[in-house]
Every structure is written in C-alpha cells, then in structure tokens.
Amino acid sequence: MDRRSHWENVYHTKSATDVSWFEAEPTTSLSLIQSIAPGGRIIDVGGGASLLVDCLIAVGTWEVTVLDVSAAALELAQTRLQERAHRVKWIQADITEVQQLGTYDIWHDRAVFHFLTSLDDRAAYLAQLRRALRPGGYVVFGTFALDGPEKCSGLPVCRYDARSLAATLGADYSLVKKLEHSHPTPGGTTQRFTFAVFRRAV
C-alpha cells in the first residue's frame, strides 16, 4: 500500500479522535508558534484533521495553509470548521511530490517528518522546505523522540532529538528552542516527542 492509500484507509476506518496522535488541545505546538510570532503565513504539514488549524483561526492573525496526503483527513477538518473552512488554504498532496506551495513565515510539522525513513524522501522534503520557507522564517518540528515508539499506525518511523534534527536540516538552520514532550494517546499509552524550533538563515 502506498503512502496515500495507507492514510486514506486510516481515516476511513478510524475516528479522528481515536488515532494515537489525536490532541484535544494542541497546546505545545500552539505555544511554540505563538512564541515565535503573533501572526503571519503558516503551513501545517500533515495537519489533516488536527485541531491546530481551529486554534490558529481563532487567534485571527494567521494566514493558514493545511497540507495532508489524505483527502479524508482534510474533509474531516473542513466539515468541523464549517463556514470557517474558507479561511484556510487546503492542499491535498504528498509533501515529497507537491509542485508549488507558496512562501511561508512558519513551517509546522508534528505528523510527517518522522515517517520519512528513506534518504530520498527526506531529501525531497527538505528541498520543499527550502523552497517554501522564507529566509529568516521558522520551522517547528514535533517528531518522535529517541525514546519514542519505533512504529506508528503500523509504519516504521525515525526518531530524533534536537541535535539529530539540526544535523538533518543542515547549517542553514539554527536551533532556537527545544523541549521533550509526553503525549497521552486516546488509548491510554504515552508517546515521547521531541519538539524543536529552528530559524532559517537570513
């Protein structure tokens, strides 16, 4: 099963509130984003059915784009937002293949990067990041930590700490902030995450 088919199947067979990554309140991501800037252009890569978009819209100062490989996940978010959905740009695409994203002040990803286990996929992702993030812009990563799960949704993942994320991004990105986070899943387990904020060189 390819990446798109896998995630379509997940969102067609499970409730958005039952998947392990569900957060009723995405407080860690939101607080990191708000610590960087009070508003601007932001893309949530792999945002899917996440409630982060609801929070950003409520603030009222963000121009929000949500990208996800799953059309079903995006439809769940759009249905939830109802008339507010028109305030968001929605992109249904694989981040390693999409042609044009536009330019952003902040790139947020709590859902995709740790699933990219091949060098080619990571290289394609980082090329997209470089094209889309303006010089001086910020990357907010939430990835599985070194002591986090080895698999998620039946797929293998790569685990990171702030140092290995910095090495993967390269010298054009400087670490601004890092923290470790324990995420309680709907199933009653705990997943360890690394959150890190990087700034692209001007």
Automatic annotation (TrEMBL):
The keyword Zinc-finger does not apply. Keywords: Methyltransferase, Transferase, Ubiquinone. InterPro entries: Methyltransf_25, SAM-dependent_MTases_sf. GO terms for molecular function: methyltransferase activity. The keyword Methyltransferase applies. Residues 42-137 form the Methyltransferase domain. Gene3D superfamilies: Vaccinia Virus protein VP39. GO terms for biological process: methylation. This is Bifunctional 3-demethylubiquinone-9 3-methyltransferase/ 2-octaprenyl-6-hydroxy phenol methylase. It comes from Anatilimnocola aggregata.
